[in-house]
Each structure stands twice: as structure tokens, then as C-alpha cells.
Amino acid sequence: MAQLRIALAQVNSTVGDLDGNAGTVVEWTRRAADAGAHLVAFPEMMLTGYPVEDLALRASFVEASQTALERLARRLADEGLGDLPVVVGYLDRRTVGLVRPGQPAGAPLDAAAWLHGGEVLVRSAKHHLPNYGVFDEYRIFVRGDRLPVVRVHGVDVATAICEDLWQDGGPVTAAGAAGAGLLLSINASPYERDKDDTRLDLCARRAREAGCALAYVNLVGGQDELVFDGDSLIVGADGAPLARAPQFVEHLLVADLAVPAAAPSPEPAHGTPVDALDGTTITIDRRVVSADPLPAYPVEPQTVAEPLDDLAEVYAALVLGTRDYVRKNGFRSVVLGLSGGIDSALVATIASDAIGPENVHAILLPSRYSSEGSVVDAEELVKRQGVNSRTVPIAPMVEAFEAQLDLHGIAAENLQARIRANVWMGLSNEHGHLVLTGGNKSELATGYSTLYGDSAGGFGPIKDVFKLTVWELARWRNTMAGKSTPFLHGFAEEPIPEAILVKEPSAELRPGQRDVDSLPEYAVLDPVLTDYVERDMGRDALIAAGHDAALVDRVIRLVDLAEYKRRQYPPGPKITPKNFGRDRRLPITNRWRER
Length: 595
What we know:
Elements: E1 2-10, H1 18-34, E2 39-41, H2 59-78, E3 86-93, E4 108-116, E5 119-125, H3 137-140, E6 146-152, E7 155-161, H4 163-166, H5 171-177, E8 182-187, H6 195-210, E9 213-218, E10 220-223, E11 226-229, E12 233-235, E13 241-244, E14 251-259, E15 273-275, E16 281-288, H7 310-328, E17 334-337, H8 342-355, E18 360-364, H9 372-385, E19 388-391, H10 395-404, H11 409-431, E20 434-435, H12 441-446, H13 467-479, E21 484-485, E22 488-489, H14 498-502, H15 522-534, H16 539-544, H17 549-561, H18 563-566
Parallel strand pairs: 1-2, 2-3, 6-16, 7-8, 8-9, 17-18, 17-20, 18-19
Antiparallel strand pairs: 1-14, 3-4, 4-5, 6-7, 9-12, 10-11, 12-13, 15-16, 21-22
Helix pairs in contact: 1-2, 5-6, 7-8, 7-13, 8-13, 10-11, 15-17
């Protein structure tokens, strides 16, 4: 057996920030070198950020990525880090060979490179291109057909990219055929609930298939709707977990591995195509950095971080997604309407945890229908969290509109919501705050929101959170009072007053209004929405699953009619298997109805 100390740099990149991302690679490579690592790996598309979407189709951006890679290799050497092999993801293009019909010559590649000695040692590209959920990579990338196998201190290390693990055949099969001692997978795998268990099981299965240890490094951070949770890990050839990084934070996972030394004459030889068992062949591309195994050395204790509990990881995802959207888009502060209800209370708390309460501006907007309790509860939350607050009564504004417009019913109710939005949008323009919207997934699904009213804003932290989960998260957050973590501010007392938690939800746009006047009880609504929206069940399947037929018909009608509203809603962090946005794309003009 040969020894190898590998470092997985679980870091946060920003789409388009080539210089900043390259600086991150240098900084964390230095940390890996200081830790005595023999190899350091960074996430998928590290240099460009991920996902780049249609930037991949822009020639100037591809060329900038290629140039940045060459400069990075030289910079690493110039800063005394050239002897440490670095694996990094970037954007490349195919310049030789055939491309898929419909793609231009020189189509983009989701690529990986080994950097060593100031040079780009070897390049490869993702073989399996996902075309489901939030991914549309088949549209913008061309498939790779080479597997790098690089010998480092006598260990043959094969390289794969993200989806190459999720599909059968391809690089995993080729790594086994090449006799690799370690399969290194660089990833940008977005978070969703319960994915950590699936990911670990997948890595264990692929390690056993390839017959070698597997190291999985994942991106961390927020990018528009997506949140990447890190959770990088290493498993042995038998699938047993060896090391694991914490979730939702940058981390250098360093582990000492004992893996089989490479054979003197490897088979298949360099340049040999192997059957990938997916209808394609993959060419083995062999390189040597250091041929001989290292003398035995003392190993360091392995890091095995425990995954977060379910609500803790959901909350961390919302905080990280909000923090990075604010930070990466150049904002320093946020503004939101604080009604005294549960949704705006949770959004305010997420914002306080994400960027600090001193950067949160809560606007209280009482109307003629606001209860005294709502105002008092909102003021109590402001006091507990220490956020900035301002009260702007909207009754005079509403009366001014009513003097000019003869509005009744829903139109009159929505007028109040739209005036509130004008207030917070005006303050956003005046002071440069990002507006946070407070709508939850149950409301978005059923259209229970006012277009250009409570749906107006720049980012929706709980857009993908069903109402029942809003309550669960708020109660969970209160149990964490006094604790300070990367996702918790450390409030001395419960940040959300109990009165808000127990209050019956209401938009307070007419006397005595309650959500149940317009919607089914959330306890029965949310399960139907989960099955219809996230699992794409039709009417018959919903009824067969045990949902009441009349309820099903009502919910389907509400969801289908609200598509035009959702299309105009701001982005928010994805935490479920199917969010409103990148995941779920339905036509607005659509006469199909479930019957």
C-alpha cells in the first residue's frame, strides 16, 4: 500500500469572478501545502463559478476562463506552490473532433485540469451531462471522452466531474478498468433536503464499482436560487466513510489515505480507449507527477463531521443562500415589511442571521385593518433582534388612492398591499437596500399573494418553504437562542415572540380576515401541494394517494391559475426537490386542466 495525503478545498466561488476565484485557489492551495498535502482538489467550475448558464456560449467568457487557467498555473509556481498538484474545475471548449449535431464547432466543456510545475498538466471534461431538474447542461456543453489518470507518489489518481458519479458507466467504469487507486470527483452539487444521505450512499456504491477509494469535493455557497452545501467526503474502496467535511461552510478536508500502489506497467496503457459501458468509449490519458511511493509517515487524525439535523440544515441553507445573494450582488443591507406575522418574522430572523441585525431594516406598515397585536408583536421582534425599524402608517396613502379610484373587494384589499410595496421599494431606491419578500411556497403555489404588492422585491428567502415548515423553522430557531454559529447570530433571547408563533395567519387586508377564508387549512393543503408540485402527481394519482377529491380539485385550480404570478416572483433559495423557478417550468398560457 502507498500513502497519500489529499486535501479537498470546499470553498465558495462566485460566477464570473475569474480573478477572485483564482485568488481563492492560491490561498487554499497554500493552506493545503502548509498541511503537508500531496494533492489538493477544488470544486467543479471553480475558476468560473457554477452554474455559468449561457455565459458558456459566449466566446469571450470561454477564452477568459482558458487564459485564467494558464495564469493560475504560473501564479502557483511563482508563489512557491508549483510542486503541489492542483486539480481545478474551469470552462473550456472543444477544438478538435466532432461535436453533437446542433452544436457549433468549439462547443463549451465543463472541464477539469491538473496544474503542476507552472503548467497545465492534463485537461478533461465532464462525460455525463445532466438534463433534468435545475440542470440543462446538454444544451450548453459537449461531452468529454477522456479520463486523466495521474500518478502521484506512486498512486494512480483518476478524475471525474460531478454527474459522472450519478450515472452508470462512463468515468467510474473507466477508472476501474485503468486500475486507479483513487477516484477524485470534483463537484458543484446543489443542496436539497435529505441529499446528504443519498450522496454518501452514491459515493460508497461508486467506490465499490471502481474498486478504489473515492474523494468527493463539493462547492459551498449560494448562487441565485441554488445553494451548495459542501459536505465533501472520502470513502474507502469498500465504501466505508473515512473523512467528511462540515456542511455550508468553507473547509479544507485533509486526509491520509492508504491505497494500492500503481503497477509498474499499467493496463490499459496511455491512449487506450476502454468500453465505458454506457454506449461510449473513454480514452485513458496517463501522466506522471511522481512515480515512487513515499516512505511511511505518521498519519493525522481524520475529520468526520456529523451532518446537521434536518431543520438545522434547511435553516443553514436559507441563511447561506440569502447571505451570498446579498453579498455577491453588492448589497450591504436589506429592507422588508414586518407585519407581525410568522412569514415576515422568519424572513427578518434569517436576514439577521445572514448579514447581522444592524444591516436589516424592518418597515412596519400598519393599516386601518392591522390589529394592535400585530403592531406590538412586530415591535417586540425588533426589540429582541436589534434590527433597524421604521413605522410608516399607510392609511392616509390608501385614502388618497380611494379618493381617486372606486375600488371594491379584492381590488381594494390589494391596493393596500401595493402601497406597502411602494414604500419599501422607495426606501430601497433611496438607501440602496435589497428588498426581501416574505411569501412562502404555499402562498406562491396557490396564488395567495398580491402581484406588485407583497410579491415585490429582489429576493425571497422562504420562497421554497411550505407554510408548515415556516412554523417548524421558527420554533427550531427559538430553541437555538443564545447559540452563536456561522448561521446563528446568538440572540440572548428567543428572536421570534411566542405571540407570533401562535397567531392565526392573516393578510389583514379586511376586517377579521383569516387565511382559511381563502385557503384550505395548511395541515391538509401542504401535503397536496407537495404531491402535485414536487411529485407531479395528476388528479387521479392524488386521490389514490388519499387526498380528498374536492380538496384536490380546489388546489389544482388554484395552482394552475397562479402560474403567471410565480413567473414574476423574485428568486429564492432552493431547498426542496422541485422549486418554483429553475426546477419547474410550465407554460403560462395553458388550457390543460386535470380532470
